[in-house]
Amino acid sequence: MDAVTREDVGAAAERIAGAVRRTPVLTLEPDALGIGVRLHAKLDLLQPTGSFKVRGAMSLLTGADVPEAGVVAASGGNFGLAVAWAARRLGHRAAVFVPESSPPAKLRPLAELGADVHVVPGYYAEALAAADAHVAATGALSAHAYDQPEVVAGQGTATAELLADAPGLDTLLVAVGGGGLIAGAAAWVTDEIRLVGVETDGTPAMHAARAAGRPVDVEVGGLAASSLGARRLGALAWAAQPWVDDALLVSDAEVVQAQRRLWAAARLAAEPGGAVALAALTSGRYRPRPGERVGVLVCGGNVDPATVVDAADPSAPSGG
Questions:
Q1: What confidence tens digit (pLDDT) does each residue in 264-273 have?
Q2: Mind listing the pLDDT tens digit for each residue in 103-145?
Q3: How far is the C-alpha of 61 from the C-alpha of 70, rounded, in Å?
Q4: CA distances, 101 to each of 104, 153, 171 (Å)
Q5: What's the whole-number mean pLDDT along residues 273-298?
Q6: Pairwise CA distance, residues 277 & 48, whole Å
Q7: What's the CATH fold of domain 6-52+149-307?
Q8: Cα gap 308→310, rounded to integer Å
């Protein structure tokens, strides 16, 4: 499969302009997170459904003919929410197949958005198989969470906005599940800046693909599985690897640390998948050079804030 191009991202940006939010870029001072350099954080956790994935969903549904049967998606939660939101906004039916491993915080809003929700035993791969069967039976439009050109192009608009608002970045860190977000980022930046993918030990699809020289199946589990739990790296993300400079792994404990540091520094509650790229910095897995201009996509916030705030943190607000 051919890689998505910068022109594809630009076209997606035109289609979705005004339909999704242009989220802010927060510049954190060097001591805010203890990483020694200023950090430019693109806050896509502030999108209407709490994640960057509304970009790809809206890009797809405004760039394709949607049949009367509507649109079907498989999702750990965030992409399903995005598809349901975009479908309701555009007047289409939506069916979403979610793995039983998805947290309730992501499942409840799906029905509220009018989607037909199907909970499938297992992880993302099992939900995808069920969604594909539904597409074959109904003729609905298939919406793939990370391996569809229109979706990837839409996700790339987050990086385009970040670089417009924070020009001159040297490095961008991006969380990776199936690879839609980093494939979109790669399409926009190509070799202009250093692009680093970050995964957890329990969701290492890109790390495994780079080691094997091709996408391979991996075992999936851990804290970020609901948002990053693809069993295999997508073909579009694999096609984008020439522009990905490194792939790092972080532990679940390091993700929790990143969530809590972001809360302490900016009162932002990121879900585990949304904090994975940040965890590479706060854990020291990625160590910026002095003066390096670093950006990060904080890509999701669908989490119970009570799980993020460290009860032992004296800076946590107590009311009054």
A1: 999 999 999 9
A2: 776 677 888 999 999 999 988 788 889 999 999 999 999 999 9
A3: 10
A4: 9, 28, 33
A5: 96
A6: 21
A7: Rossmann fold (3.40.50)
A8: 6
**What mean pLDDT do residues 303-310 have?**
83
| Token pair recorded at residue 101 | 């491993």
The residue that leads in pLDDT, 128 or 153, is 153
Sorted by where each begins, the domain ranges of the chain are: 6-52+149-307, 53-143
CB neighbour class for 132 (10 Å; exposed up to 12, middle 13-18, buried from 19): middle
Q: Match 């197949």 to its residue by tokens.
A: 97
**Cβ partners under 8 Å of residue 53, min gap 6:** 47, 78, 79, 81, 82, 145, 155
6-52+149-307 and 53-143: identical CATH topology: yes
CA distance 95 to 74: 9
Of 3.40.50.1100, 3.40.50.170, 1.20.1250.20, 3.20.10.10, the CATH number of 53-143 is 3.40.50.1100
